[in-house]
């Protein structure tokens, strides 16, 4: 098994638990699946963008007021 396949599996487990607890599960799923797809496709720039979007969504979902630059 390739390391990215393990990483994608671990990411999915994290996503499913996060979605279960999220105030906006649809948004969380959208961003998380973009991240997983980028990992599987081996596209690091796309994965970085997706993880940034996911993090920003999670911060908003938690009601925190943090600015990421």
| H/E series | HHH
Shape: globular
Unreliable stretches covering 5 or more consecutive residues: none
- By DSSP, the count of extended strands is 0
Largest sheet: none
What is the SS-derived class?
Answer: mainly alpha
Radius of gyration of CA atoms, rounded to a whole number? 12 Å
What percent of the residues sit in helical stretches (DSSP H or I)?
over 70%
User: What percentage of the residues does DSSP assign to strands (E)?
Assistant: under 5%
Could you report the average pLDDT, rounded to the nearest whole number? 80
Q: Helical segment tally? A: 3
Please give a structural write-up.
The chain is mostly helical. It has one domain. Helix content is 78%, strand content 0%. It has three helices and no strands. It has helices at 3-21, 25-41, 44-61. Helix 1 packs antiparallel against helix 2 and helix 2 packs antiparallel against helix 3. The longest helix is centred in the first third of the chain and has 19 residues, at 3-21. It is globular. The N and C termini lie far apart (36 Å). The mean pLDDT is 80.
């Amino acid at each position: 098994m390739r390391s990215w396949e393990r990483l994608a599996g671990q990411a999915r487990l994290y996503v499913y638990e996060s979605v279960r607890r999220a105030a906006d599960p649809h948004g969380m799923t959208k961003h998380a699946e973009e991240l997983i797809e980028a990992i599987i496709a081996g596209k690091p720039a796309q994965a970085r963008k997706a993880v940034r979007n996911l993090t920003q969504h999670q911060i908003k979902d938690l009601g925190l007021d943090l600015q990421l630059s």
